[in-house]
Amino acid sequence: MTTYAFRILNVFAESTFGGNQLCVFEDARGMDDATMQALALQFNLSETTFILPSERADARVRVFTPGYEMRFAGHPTLGTAHVVRDLAGTGDALSLEFTAGIVPVRAAGDIWTFTAPQSGEPKTAPANLTQAKMAELLSLNEHDLLAPPVWVDTGADQLLVALRSTDAVRRAHPESAQLDAWPESSLERKTVYVFAFDPDQPGRVLSRYFFSKQGGGVAEDPGTGSACANLGGWLIANRHALPVEYEIEQGEAVQRPCLLRLKVTADSAIQVGGKVIEIGRGKISL
Hints:
This protein is of the alpha+beta class. The protein contains five helices and 17 strands. The protein folds into two domains: 122 residues, Diaminopimelate Epimerase, Chain A, domain 1 (Roll), CATH 3.10.310; 146 residues, Diaminopimelate Epimerase, Chain A, domain 1 (Roll), CATH 3.10.310. An eight-stranded mixed barrel has the order 1-2-3-4-6-7-8-17.
């Protein structure tokens, strides 16, 4: 049998049991695709990552959900970078190789920030859904929507829905019975990221991320870095004044509070950051 070491971390966490959970395998050499997928299902977290050598970056990273592999994902980037720094002593600036491209990552203590693999003018596409239909899918009123839903891709394409109020974000409740009507991403995944700018706290955004889970039904992700990057793309596409910075609150509804830091620079680079807390280590024999 071969023994593989792993770590459990919380990303975008401001407290020990906040943030989005992540499992990182320190050295995945010798694992095949089926084994990585099986381990992601075994741990059953939103994502599990596997570190491999890279000729182009400090490490190559593969990202698996319990059901499929991803080209790129936000909180796995930050959590994996935290582990790579500890293992290799790379310092506070490093790069990770994903299927989506090379992603620069830097740290200030335990707060990590990545630059989206597709910064600049984002890829966008209409959702081909009326605002009334989108509202229905979210159990909201049409007036709750601030703008038409739109696909945005700065590394992983997702459906973004801007809402008029943080109250509407909290009231959003996708019904499993409506899943067949959800549009699919280019990778045949059904996701919806809803957000609203907080009028009472300038510079703050409240967000939620819903997705169809393996086996049916709707799940909610505590903290979604790739969607936060796509919010940066949404700001660029809507000609928001740059540079701009926001703090994004997510995870409130699933008792895993997350704080994501979004910055879009004057030259349209999209940066997403958050605190990483390691909470445990272990080994598994295969």
